[in-house]
Design a protein that fits this description.
Chain A has 308 residues and is of the alpha+beta class. Chain A is 34% helix and 25% strand. In chain A, strands 7-9-6-10-8-11 form a 6-stranded mixed β-sheet, sandwiched between helices.
Chain lengths: 308, 308
């Protein structure tokens, strides 16, 4: 059983007086006034599962907040505040200093405030709960993709997964791959810029194949993407040439880029956003009426990342 | 170094456009409109630290939510929604079923909604982030105690601590002690009833001595309490008679009752609240100008519960 069916089976209670998204999108939405909604997300990082055992406290703090910012980004929300639940095996002042400085730097960069937390003793684990703000009914959802939409991704795919693959094989990843693994840039400004332009959006934390499939399922559509259109770094391109291992790009997870769909009429607007934000946005396919995800040019399949 | 100085040293950043409580009260407060504030709290429970290894999933779920509801209670907030970060060593459907049923039952009892969560693989740990609603500037704070206020506690002290003490000594606690340990009743209705009546309030999760001291520190006052006025169950009374161990009542922690202060003029109002809610509220002392906590009738001292 994977994480998704686990959550859905036991923890999806119907909440009639909330906005009803419950578990499913990157964030839950809660209305606080007639104009405003909160977008709320929570992510736990565990040593040895979500980051290697010798990761620096700076990188751990960065990633713990960044993955939550990425969830806010996927909804187009403006970051507002977060809480920190920190479980530590022991108190190490140097570690705490590095952790808190890095957390504060990323928080300030995105104008999100630490409001409180809890510290406990145990195996190293960090749970951050982040809340953002949205104008009501503006949120980017997984369920809005329309037949004929173009499918886009930001920047490149598979860099973090390749770094993790190398680490597990006792290889030392390049600085740029490690940066993508440890310090993924949450696409907060991109998400906000896509409000009113994209029909659906998700962050690629579990791999393109799985995350795009969530959009397709929730939107009740299909998609056809071109394997040769995927934006890849030189290192990932070389890795795939050597190994035929497309999984790093399709199913590796931890990319924290955005995958979104938008009507063809929005091509120019999206190009302008890319230029303004100095990021690369690549069209990788289209939304189709026929259900399922077709990956043109891929021989064999891929298995997305599962926590269990 | 204890939990409090740890948090204060590294994670108290000043957030000028929030309501500024940051870390310190039971909840952080965030204004969402000119009339309303959110009260937000987070608590992590770890197997072997906050509950014994063979605790049932029902009791774990209950306690994980109850301790957060208790934080909302301490501020007088009305519970609204919560998220769940659940770390599990493996997937056990029976365990999950028991956990989710118990969580849902307590959530429904207090009209609080599960909005989302995250599940990860690792040592058993539960982090709940709960949000409540308050009318602006109504929150019960630690900082409002006034010289001359009476000091009160709800129900009895030390039952949970005595249960834990017995478990650690391989004894089997009585059903009523175990119920106080595993299923503390969060005093949500009491907190709400005290709005406009109490000057300060805290929940007794770390022991009366430490938690009342937080009120005194934040309010810049002292208190004098009478050891013989403390409300104790028959079992705790017998334990103290046998062992002279006042620590279970003063410093045991995990009581999740409320300690609050109120002007003498509110005695009748408080008596009415106790009757209406069918709880016992006991006056245990008064707030004094002289700083520090005087415990009349106690010989020797006590050490409150510390996570580290």
């Amino acid at each position: 059983m994977n994480e998704f069916s686990l959550i859905e089976k036991y923890f999806t209670w119907k909440n009639s007086d909330l906005d009803g998204l419950g578990v499913g999108d990157d964030c839950a939405l809660v209305s606080v006034s007639s104009q405003q909604q909160l977008a709320i997300t929570v992510d736990t990082l565990i040593e040895g599962v979500h980051f290697p055992i010798d990761t620096t406290p700076q990188d751990i703090a960065y990633k713990a907040l960044a993955v939550n910012l990425s969830d806010l980004a996927a909804m187009g929300a403006t970051p507002w505040y977060f809480s920190l639940a920190l479980t530590l095996p022991s108190i190490d002042e140097q570690w705490l200093k590095g952790f808190s400085q890095s957390l504060k730097a990323l928080a300030q960069q995105h104008n999100i405030y630490l409001i409180g937390g809890d510290t406990t003793k145990g195996a190293l684990s960090i749970t951050i709960n982040a809340t953002g703000m949205l104008r009501k009914n503006q949120a980017l959802l997984r369920s809005g993709a329309k037949v004929g939409d173009n499918v886009f991704v930001s920047n490149t795919l598979g860099d973090a997964a390749l770094a993790w693959w190398q680490i597990q094989k006792q290889q030392i990843p390049s600085t740029s791959l490690l940066a993508q693994f440890n310090c993924p840039q949450p696409q907060v400004k991109l998400g906000q810029a896509l409000l009113g332009i994209a029909n659906s959006c998700i962050d690629i934390s579990d791999g393109l194949e799985q995350d795009l499939s969530h959009i397709l399922t929730h939107s009740k559509v299909g998609a056809s993407i071109d394997i040769n259109a995927l934006p890849l770094s030189a290192e990932v391109t070389a890795h795939i040439a050597n190994t035929q291992d497309w999984c790093v790009a399709l199913a590796g997870g931890d990319d924290y880029e955005l995958c979104f769909t938008a009507p063809k009429t929005q091509m120019d607007a999206i190009q302008l956003i890319a230029e303004k934000l100095h990021i690369v946005i690549t069209k990788i396919g289209i939304i189709t009426e026929e259900r399922g995800l077709e990956i043109k040019g891929l021989e064999g399949g891929c298995q997305s990342y599962q926590h269990f």
